[in-house]
Every structure is written in structure tokens, then in C-alpha cells.
Sequence to fold (537 residues):
Amino acid sequence: MVDDNTEIELKLEVAEPDLERLRRHPLLKETKKGRATSKTLKSVYFDTPDFLLFDGGASLRVRHSGKRRIQNVKARGGNGGAGLFSRKEWERDIDGDAPDTDAIMETGLADVFSRPGVLDELKPLFTTDFRRTEYTLGNGTWEVALTLDKGAVVTDTGSMPLCEVELELMRGDAAHLFEIARTLHEAAPMRLSTRSKSERGYALVGGLDRVPVKAPEAPVTADMSVAEAIQTICRSCQRHLLQNEAPLRELRDAEALHQMRVALRRLRSALSVFKDVVGGPETEDLKVGLKWLTGELGPARDTDVFIDEILGPVRSAHPDEDGLEALVGRFQRRNKDHYRKALAALDDRRYTELMLQIGAWIEGGAWLRPDDQSAADLLAAPCGGYAAKVLQARHKKVRKRGKRFNELDAPQRHRLRVQIKKLRYASEFFGDVWDGEKKVKAYVKALKALQGDLGDLNDIAVAHDLLHEIVGKDGAEAREVWAAGLTAGWHGARQAALMDSARSAWKSFAGTDVFWPKPKKAAAKAEKAARQAARGR
Fold:
């Protein structure tokens, strides 16, 4: 059931010629309820000159629809993950073109508008002007409003074309939005949009920075079921992925690329960590898509690391070595090629299909409807016991792999590092399930330190192979061969100290207390909390 003051939307960008193709799609004919309606809509967005509303997480617009003036106050930044916008909004008819301040103060965002200077300094910032065609789709169990918008976002200094598809859930669950979007995407290539119309306007007037975003918290709580916890975690991973798409696409930002890779690793780790409850053909198919995208983004990130962290320090230590300049130039040219490949992947039709596939899997995947009753019971159970079991199993696996830490070779250390990453991500996913913030932080800190040292050692091992490749490559200049040897030797001299640091980090991790209770105790505690919560309802 959709809350009266909450809109759940999926937005997709589409090329203008393809908009007409969508109007004729059989899906619309088969599921349409009543006649489509078309109208021209003009909306004026208001804020203060220094964007106090935007910074406070709100948006304010007055829409012109014929003679009507409809004021809309909305909680901004409600991207709930899986590509969905889930936001609180308050709408009412007003008199005149200026905002009605009395009506504003009756909304759930009155505290934002009460901040000093907000109501006194409101002014029009930009306008959206577009033609909208709206369809109501559905059957007996669900209903979706499909709108096709064509127009522009306009400011005093410029404009931005607007051509998009919106799917808003009226009744049913969010999985229907993804089912419809995937069907339409087969007929006309689209791109999942993470920008609302207001954010497009703020981008034009300079109020929206497109900066890389680190992984958001996955707010998993003890009263969630296992299924709800997994959905919350995976939504967080996809939100992290999508939030970094624009900085990479528009700015070619290296940190944004890195964060997209982190988001993919976190999502792939989640599928691995929860494989006992989410496994199946649909999940395996999703893994194939995630592996494809990881592979498309990986080479650009690898050359970033090689240039900055392998060649960079040696270059600083030997600023007059022209062979290093030649070597850097070689990898910068390679890096440009890899970035072109990464950006092409984001424009590939398969990328949008993957984003929709992730959302459909999260919101309505087959794993949510298992045939086995014991699996269904597990998904419905409080997440505390399951989380403790997962963490304990991952912890034991890491301890076992690192049992003879001093004897591990480079491939073994790499495999240990992979398991440490999965344990760290699982710890971050479930860190809020139990009380004990200090213990969680101490445990994650120990994992990060160990992961960092093993990562540095792995970078040197990978760099060693790359440098050998350069030396053996036809056409490599003598000065490049010399620089490759210098670089290998410089980092080789670091290995002993890094190994000492890694040994110390391993001992620290081994001596750090876990933050979760024993699985049986955690399960009993979770069931008790669930019963108490049920009585409270």
C-alpha cells in the first residue's frame, strides 16, 4: 500500500524520436485503463538565492495547469535505492502565482521553511515547461501512472531539453514499475535517471554539485525481517552505484569510477554472503551482468592506481628521470582508452537493462517467493539471528585462511584479502543491528587496516607483472625498460616493511572482539524483540 503523502517513481530518459515509439507500444494498449490525457504543464521552482531550501532537503514549486495554480512541497533527495524515487510530498491548489506561505507551514517540512531568511527570500529560480501525456495502466492487483514528458528546463541564462518517462506506483508493489520499464526498454533504449526535474534545474543554476559519493549506510535494524534487511542492503548498494554515474559520465572523475567499482563489489559481496537465501537462476543471471560491468570499469581503475600509486611515488623520488615520464605517458594513453571503454559501457543498452534487472530483483525477485517453506520462514524471521550466523561464518573463514599468515604467498594473500572485504562489508551492513557502536568501529577499523596492507602488497604484485609486460613489449624504449626496473626495485624495497605492517594488522584483528552475540543467542533475542514489537502494534 502506497502512503497518501508518498510518491514512488521510476524515471527514465529517452531520445525524442523514441518517445513516439513508446506511445504505440502494445503494453499500453493491453493494460491501459481509460483514455490517455495530454496537457501542457509549466512549473516555477522557488528557493532563496543561496539555495537554503535545496540544502535543507526540500523543493517548492507552483505548477500552472490552465487557470489552476497547484503548490507542491516535496522532500528532496528521496532516492530510496534500486533507482526509485520515494519521497514525501504535499500538494494543494492556491490563489495566484506566488507561494502560499500558510499552506507551506502546514506541511511536514515546516521546520525547513522556518529557518531564518527562507520565506522572506524566496524567489523564482527556474521553470520546467513540457507537454505531458499520461496513461493509467494496471489490472486487478496493481496500478501505475505512466507519463511521457517532452519539453525543457529553463533559466534566465539557458535551458536543458527534457524528454523522459515516469512510472509512478499508485497501487501494488514497486516490482511492477521495473517490469513495465524493462518491457519498454526492449522497444526503445532508455537510461535510468537519478535526477528529478528540480535537480536538473538546480544543475543549470549552479546549485547542484556532481561530486563522487562514498557508500551510504544501509540502515538495517533489529526489527527487520531477513528479506527486508537484504533488500535494504542491496538498495543501498545500487544507490551508491547510481549516485556516482553522473560524475563519471559528465566529469570523467576518477574517484567516481572508484566508487562505482566499490558499489559493484559491495553488491556482489552481498549476493555471495546471502547466497543461501537468494540463490537461484535469476540471481546467477544477475551475477553475470554485474561481472560484465565490473570488467568494463576495471581496466580504467587499474591504470589509475598504477599511475598514481605505483609510478607516482617513484616519479616524485626521481623527478629528473625521463624514462619515468615516458612510462607515465604510455600508461596515460592506455588509461584514456580504458576510460573510453568504461564510458561506452554506461551508454550501452545492456547497462540500463542491468540497472532495471537489479531493481526488479530487489523489489520482486524470485528469491522473495521460495517454494520451500523453511526458506520462506527464514526470510520472514527477524534478521538478528541470521546476521550473527553470517558474520560468524565469515569471521571463521577469514581466521582459517589466515591461520599461517607468515607463510602465505601473494595469491594466497589476495584470496585472504577478498574474504576480508566480504567480512568487512557484512560488518558494515549489519553494524546497527545490535548495541555496541564502539565494538563495531573497532572491528571494522581492524579489518580496514588489514585490508589496506594486503591491498598495497597486491598492488605491488600486480605492478610487477605489468612492468614485466612493458619490458618484454616490442617497441619499448631503453629508457622505459630502465624506468620499469627502477620502479620494480623501489616498490620491492617497500615489501618487507609492508609485510611487517600486515603481520601487525593481522595480530590486531585476531585480538579484536567480535561485536555480534553468538548466533543462537542472537536469534532468540531477535524473536523476543519481534514479539514485543508485534504486541506494541
Observations:
- The first strand starts at residue 6 and ends at 14.
- The chain has a mean pLDDT of 91.
- The beta strands are 6-14, 37-47, 58-65, 68-75, 79-81, 84-93, 123-138, 143-154, 159-171, 190-192.
- The chain is about 60% helix and 15% strand.
